[in-house]
Specification:
The complex is a heterodimer of chains A (289) and B (48). Chain A is mainly alpha-helical and 289 residues long. Chain A has 2 domains: 221 residues, no CATH class; 54 residues, Alpha-Beta Plaits, CATH 3.30.70. A two-stranded antiparallel ribbon of chain A has the order 1-2. In chain A, helix 3 packs antiparallel against helix 4, helix 6 packs across helix 12 and helix 10 packs across helix 12. The radius of gyration of chain A is 20 Å and the shape is globular. Helices cover 73% and strands 0% of the residues of chain B. Classes of the chains: A mainly alpha (289), B mainly alpha (48).
């Protein structure tokens, strides 16, 4: 029974992820003309990672938008984007990662390729999870904010040197569609393609490796996971310690020990896997674990 | 009373986040974001 519910839930979630991905990249004309959308929706950020230079993108990428304010010639803190992302984090925590991120969906689809899977030893995995905070604070906050070239210009360090989302959704697509862009690609593009290839290969063997170890947006939302209004509650009295929830979780979270772990992407699969309904989503249900 | 205290903390933080967002909009950050988002980002696509 729980198994059927879990299968249906997985299908619904994939549908929501794909639907959101199509909706937020609905400027289909851009894929034919190698151009990007320039309308008023670009004033707003989408909640998940989605490169604003993707020909289909209708909204701005929050991580890119944040850096664009930080690295402006006149140094500024990005109150608009930080406030917007904090509000989302305070409302739903990392729910966006599990339901509204196109790149997360792509990683999940790659993981469905039937190959032997790699389970990284717990200690190494735990240490690597901190990397995403390094990317957030160093590459998204500190370097764009403090670094200035001799010309007084800054750089969006994460977008420029790391982000495989931009390479996949914008770089490769525009390089294929536009010969003038293709003709000026050099070492930086090759570096970014190498990161993307590494990310794609890793995703086949490890569940959502970019989200676990690199994504600065997931790191940002995770800061609010413990105080968000949407919370997961665990009823110890209903639990029969079968461990189905922990076995189901591919983010390697044990919901019985830590239902609101910073690593939980709130996909809800553990809730469906539980035969006793001991796990639930609720609004600010702070009286449970 | 004790049970609902964290809810207040969340709501206060939420108000601060919304205020931060409004402050950012009032000093023209949206324009900076839109300017970046409506032009092909050379760094994002790997040109630099």
């Amino acid at each position: 029974m729980a198994d059927n519910g879990l299968k249906k839930h997985k299908a619904v979630r994939k549908g929501v992820q794909a639907g959101w991905g199509i909706l937020s990249n609905g400027h289909f004309k851009g894929f034919l003309t190698a151009s990007i959308y320039k309308g008023p929706l670009k004033n707003f950020c989408v909640p998940g990672m989605n490169c604003y230079s993707c020909p289909g993108a209708l909204g701005a990428c929050p991580i890119g938008a944040m850096q664009s304010v930080f690295d402006a010639r006149k140094r500024k803190f990005s109150f608009y984007v930080v406030g917007y992302l904090s509000a989302i984090g305070l409302l739903v925590g990392r729910f966006v990662c599990g339901w509204l991120c196109l790149f997360g969906l792509i990683e999940e689809l790659l993981y469905m390729i039937p190959t032997p899977k790699i389970r990284i030893p717990e200690k190494i995995d735990k240490a690597l999870r901190y990397l995403k905070y390094v990317f957030l604070f160093l590459f998204v906050f500190a370097l764009p904010f403090f670094y200035r070239s001799s010309l007084g210009t800054g750089d969006p360090f994460f977008c420029k040197y790391i982000c495989p989302v931009g390479t996949l959704e914008a770089g490769l697509v525009l390089a294929i569609l536009d010969g003038s862009i293709r003709s000026v690609l050099g070492a930086l593009f090759r570096w970014k393609v190498a990161i993307l290839v590494g990310c794609v290969l890793a995703s086949i063997f490890i569940y959502r490796p970019f989200c676990k170890y690199v994504c600065p947006l997931g790191a940002f939302y995770s800061l609010f996971q413990k105080v968000s209004l949407l919370k997961m509650s665990f009823d110890q009295n209903a639990c029969v310690n079968c461990g189905a929830c922990a076995r189901t979780c591919k983010m390697n979270v044990n919901p019985m020990k830590n239902p609101n772990s910073t690593e939980c992407i709130r996909c809800g699969e553990c809730i469906k896997a539980c035969p006793k309904s001991a796990l639930k989503f609720g609004v600010a249900n702070n009286n449970t674990k | 009373m004790k049970k609902t205290l964290p809810n207040y903390v969340t709501l206060i933080l939420l108000l601060i986040a919304i205020a931060s967002c409004i402050f950012g909009i009032s000093r023209g950050e949206v324009k900076t974001v839109a300017k970046k988002a409506t032009n092909i980002c050379m760094e994002c696509i790997g040109i630099g």
